[in-house]
Amino acid sequence: MRTDNMTRGTAMADRDLAPKEALATPALLKLMTFLSPAFPVGAFSYSHGLEFLIDKGDLRTADALTSWIAELLTRGSLWNDAVLLAAAHRAARLDATAELVEVAALAEALAGSRERHLETMAQGRAFLEAVAPAWPCAILDCFGKEGAAYPVAVGAVAAAHEIALEAALPAYLNAVVANLVSVGVRLVPLGQSAGLKVLASLHQEIAATARRAEVSSLDDLGSATVLAEIAAMRHETQYSRVFRT
Fold first, then answer.
1. Domain presence at residue 11
2. What does the pLDDT look like over 126-157, one tens digit per residue?
């Protein structure tokens, strides 16, 4: 009897922990590929302003890096990215081409500095160029030669390939955060184990941000991480640089 009760309890727990909608294997494989570090978007070339902060001495520890990225997720550029990805995903699912184009224009306009613009547009364009020959979809025709900001490109393509928003959002945020952590691993420098601990400690914040963004609208856009924007602008004139941003 005790064994039966334990079995039922385990089954109920597993059911409670299961995602609301299991992602079909083909869609899951596409999502894993699109957001793999090996996918050719050139993410390793961008530091999101971290290079300036580390060079200045403002980010010297794993804890400082964790706090900085958490702020970007909660009320900074990564939050805005999540909102824009969600809006692009919804527009693409509805075949609302005009709305998707407007979201793309808004995302580009929200890039607050030359380097922020370079980072999001170059990665978005590279993402679309990599997707087109291997995973063609009609939604790509919405974007011109300049492409679209990275989160908009990912959101639209994910919807076109039937990748659920609730899966695309945390996967995108985790990929971007992992790249920022890798910047810290290389420049602070942090050890690989310390970098993994930073990433693990941010998983709860990634999940929470994704859940918020899933039910967001464009009215929820907004950033309060002024120092991050200043760091991006100061990086433009940094004398010696490893990263493009």
1. no
2. 999 999 999 999 999 999 888 999 999 999 99
- pLDDT for residue 20: 53
Cβ-contact 43, 179 below 8 angstroms: yes
The pTM assigned to this predicted structure is 0.90
Total domains in the fold of the chain:
1
Residue 38 within a domain: no
Q: Which domain holds residue 162?
A: 23-32+45-235
In a domain, 52, yes or no: yes
Token pair belonging to 14? 């597993």
- Counting every residue written for the chain, the total comes to 245
CATH of the domain at 98: 1.10.4190.10
